[in-house]
Design a protein that fits this description.
5-stranded mixed beta sheet; 7 strands; alpha+beta
């Protein structure tokens, strides 16, 4: 028996855990996670959010790690639920020593897999931000959950050039010429 237990945590506890869970992410990645969560909550489809936490067996009201995932929406109201999800982030809420961290990662990985099996989720991707590679624990979490890096996608990227207009205002364009 391990020293930690996991649970599908109520979304009410998500707000309390979120600042600590996202504290080591880049600001851009943390904002993406928050925007995804806000978007799902605003649609009223809260059941699409998978939020699982882990806590010591002797202090079940004190989570030390958590994982957040979002199941993809059905294509329309009459379509069956999709079988895909995206893990937005998983991490520690407080510093733990290496042995504890490994045990927690394993426990959360098994809990997430069981939850996805229960919900019929068959395709899962993990979205991270290359800027977060400074925190090597992201890679350890992905590995513990059985993920391997496939590639880096860049959205809306490109050079930005600023030039002054005759009125003295700065005009920002994406490599376009007059």
């Amino acid at each position: 028996m391990t020293g930690f237990q996991t649970r599908s945590a109520p979304l009410e506890t998500l707000e309390q855990c979120l600042p600590r869970l996202l504290q080591n992410l880049s600001l851009a990645r943390a904002q993406i996670v928050i925007d995804h969560l806000r978007g799902v909550i605003q649609t009223g489809e809260r059941d699409r959010i998978v939020f699982i936490d882990a806590s010591p067996r002797d202090a079940t009201d004190t989570p030390v790690a958590a994982v957040i995932a979002i199941r993809q929406p059905a294509s329309n109201e009459s379509a069956p639920p999709t079988d895909s999800a995206t893990i937005l982030h998983a991490g520690l809420l407080a510093h733990r020593d290496g042995d504890d961290a490994g045990e927690i990662m394993t426990e959360l990985s098994m809990a997430v897999e069981a939850e996805f099996d229960r919900r019929g989720t068959r395709f899962v991707q993990w979205a991270t931000d290359p800027a977060d590679s400074r925190d090597d624990s992201i890679g350890r979490w992905c590995e513990a959950f059985g993920f391997a890096e496939v590639g880096t996608l860049q959205y809306l990227g490109g050079p930005v050039e600023a030039k002054s207009s005759p009125s003295g205002q700065t005009d920002v364009s994406r490599g376009q010429t007059d």
